[in-house]
Amino acid sequence: MKATKLLKRYFDANPPVEEQIHVLVVVPEGAVASEISETAQMIKKVDEMHAQIVQTKREQYVHSKVGSSDGKKLLQALNIQVDAVDAVPFATRNSTPVQAFRWASVSDERGQEITLTEEQQRQRYRSYVEDNIGDVLAEKKLCVLGVEKGGNILSVAVPGYDIDLVGRTDILVLSDIAKKHPLHLQFLPGVRLLIEVKKTKDLKSGCVYQALSELIALDLLTKDPMMALLTDLNGHWQFFWVSERTSSSTIIQTLIITTPGEAFQVIRTLLAQSPSSDEDIHLPCYEGPVKRRKLAKMLPSITECGACGDIHASLQRMYDIASMLGPDIDMARDVARQITRSIPSFSMYT
Question: What percent of the chain shows pLDDT beyond 70?
Answer without folding.
Answer: 70
